Amino acid sequence: MAARTRLSPEERRRQLLDLGAQLFADQHYDDVHIEQVAELAGVSRGLLYHYFPTKRAFFAELVRRETQAMMADSTPDPALGVLDQLRHGIDVYLANCRTNRYGAQAIYQGAASSDPDVIAIIEESTRVQEERILAALDPGGSHPRLLQITVRSWLVMIRTACHTWLADPDDDGVDAVDLRQMAEHALLGALFGLPDAARPANLAVLIDDAARRGPADG
């Protein structure tokens, strides 16, 4: 066991989560034993359980922290155009998933996917992302229900695509740029297919910008 360093409760909690994040990033959920976190931190298991009574509780708090960080990193910049906001959000999401590959798989497909706390965290994140996209696409006022359904469905699609990609992220046939382009075009196509009454106000500008700049222009 490493030499123990005296830390404040908040510092200790942050340290434990930092160490846990490393473990869950490098190993499958089922292969991680949170007692390893106590060993790495140089603290007793009892102290670890004081902060996080179970592995699921620990993982849920880790998901909460990582999700909050991702949402902060992907906060829309109103000075940017709609296309740049969209591309930035996609890039942040893909980078986060790849950095936390095993944790992401556990959230959506593995043992943690049925945890009520994890489900609530992901649902809240999805709601915020949906609101951000709708605000950029169709600023002001209420949004047509069909447009809301389209954006929510697209978020589910990109999540599924990302985690299918994570099954073999080093496959030379697909990289993050390809996935970003696919996600971008999928949203544009879905929006263009809406009836006129449900199309967002900024759709024409968005499509023109994407066509003018091309997929390689980030």
Word description of this protein:
With 218 residues, the chain is mainly α. It folds into 2 domains: 9-53, Arc Repressor Mutant, subunit A, CATH 1.10.10; 64-213, Orthogonal Bundle (Tetracycline Repressor, domain 2), CATH 1.10.357. Helix content is 68%, strand content 0%. It contains 10 helices and no strands. The chain has helices spanning 9-26, 35-41, 45-51, 55-73, 82-99, 101-108, 116-137, 145-165, 176-192, 203-213. Helix 8 runs antiparallel to helix 9. It is elongated. The model has no long low-confidence stretch (mean pLDDT 87).
> What is the CATH domain class of the largest domain?
Mainly Alpha
Cα shape: elongated
Helix content: 55-70%
Order of helices and strands: HHHHHHHHHH
Features:
elongated, single chain, about 220 residues, Tetracycline Repressor, domain 2
Itemize the secondary structure elements and their pairings.
Blueprint: H1 9-26, H2 35-41, H3 45-51, H4 55-73, H5 82-99, H6 101-108, H7 116-137, H8 145-165, H9 176-192, H10 203-213
